[in-house]
Amino acid sequence: MRIVTGLVFLLSVAFSGAAYAQAVAVIPFKLIDNRIIVPITIEGQGPFQCIIDSGASSLISTEVAAQLGKSVALSEGPSGGVGENRVRSGSTTLKTVQVARGIEVHDVPTTAMPFDDTIPVFGKVKIDAVFGTPLFEQFTVIVDYDKRELSFQPKTIAIASGNAVVIPIERSGIPIVSAKLDGVPARFGLDLGARSSLLLYTPFIEKNGLREKYHASFNTITGWGIGGPVRSQIARAKTLELGGVSVNDIVIRLSTQKTGGTTYSRFDGLIGPDVLKQFRVTFDYTHNRVLLERSSLFGKRDSYDRLGAWFIQKDDAFSVLEVVPDGPAAKAGLRKDDIVLAIDGHPTSSLLLPEARTRLRTLPSGSSVRFQIKRGTETLELRAVLRDLV
After folding, report:
1. Cα–Cα distance for residue pair 269/208, rounded to 1 Å
2. Are 165-294 and 309-385 in the same CATH fold?
3. Which helix (H) or strand (E) holds 371?
4. How far separated are the first and last CA of the chain, in Å rounded?
5. Of 298, 299, 321, 325, whose CB is crowded by the most CB atoms within 10 A?
6. Mind listing the pLDDT tens digit for each residue in 325-379?
7. CB–CB of 328/321 below 8 Å?
8. pTM value?
9. What does DSSP say about strands 165-168 and 30-32: parallel, antiparallel, or unpaired?
10. Under a CB-based contact definition with an 8 Å cutoff, are residues 225 and 83 in contact?
11. What is the DSSP letter of 20?
């Protein structure tokens, strides 16, 4: 795979506690539903809205493929991604993918598929592509959650660790680290696209009796990916140890999927953004390592949905797909298939689904939220009092 070697411009990047070389580029990103999203161009066209994901290779929507003039034959594979449903996809090659000036990757093998599964997560926020491994293999990538910036450096330049924690990685399509979860040894993938703190795979759960250990109870939709919804039980772990640094009191998802990625035993689960946000993360594939420096969020207790309902986009409104038994939504009277017309007086036609979901996750426990819903021919006003479910 060829790459543009000329440094189009240089920006100095200073990080506390570590000596970094000058960067090829520094670009801002949006954090939407905990995913890093930036505009990219493909073969000179765009911009396209792209998720930067250490847990993925290169994906584009069939809509983008058609816009690029790619003829892609779709076929149904043996399974989907993290979801249980099979997905139709095809292959193509992208001549040039540009993330920023000087950050280009060429001749990228790419999967094209319908992006229907992005709608239940992002609603009207359009996602066109997912880009990961080809970028991380060609550059050292630094994720600064405090500044909401991505920095790219030539992979040939060694980065001094300073006070950063250095963790060796295995590379198997995703960077894998050795860790301990409440004393249990594990191998976890570092996944910028995993949405929450820690998603545990079924073989690891069953081998170590984790459902019983954590007293996991209700089973609900906890995310959505390629292949559909991700169903899990929710609990809290005391300590996740990574290379000598500990992250405490994190929400863990114990997969209950019967098929799909979370049933694999190649590694034990995915460390996601609610852990990674507690650090400035440097992905240094050339030296098979990641560097972690504490961010302003280090030690902040993460949260899970405080409403107990999963909304999806339905035209200009939200539709209730699932309600957690005995959760705040259920106690307020929300039911599956209710159409949410307004939240706290704001019409859902003017709201973005990911932002509404984040608000219902981060509002303090005890907050009262008003919902206007349509149920059949009735329009109802309901009030839910948010609380922590774990």
Report:
1. 13
2. no
3. strand 368-375
4. 46
5. 321
6. 999 999 999 999 999 999 999 999 999 999 999 999 999 999 999 999 999 999 9
7. no
8. 0.89
9. unpaired
10. yes
11. -
Residue whose tokens read 């019967």: 258
Integer Cα distance of 350 and 203 in angstroms? 42
Domain boundaries defined on the chain:
25-154, 165-294, 309-385
DSSP labels, 201-247: -HHHHHHTTHHHHTT---EEEEEEETTEEEEEEEEEEEEEEETTEEE
Residue of 298, 42, 291 lying closest to 151 (CA atoms): 291
Residue 4 pLDDT grade (very low, low, confident, very high; cuts 50, 70, 90): very low
Q: Which two tokens stand for residue 338?
A: 């209710």
Compute the radius of gyration of the chain from its Cα atoms: 21
- Superfamily holding 25-154: Acid Proteases (2.40.70.10)
Compute the residue count for the chain: 390
Architecture of the domain whose range is 309-385: Roll (2.30)
**CATH hierarchy code of domain 165-294:** 2.40.70.10
Using alpha carbons, list the distances in angstroms from residue 233 to 138, 210, 255, 263, 353: 37, 11, 6, 14, 23
Q: Are 138 and 4 in contact (CB under 8 A)?
A: no
Q: What is the DSSP letter of 3?
A: B
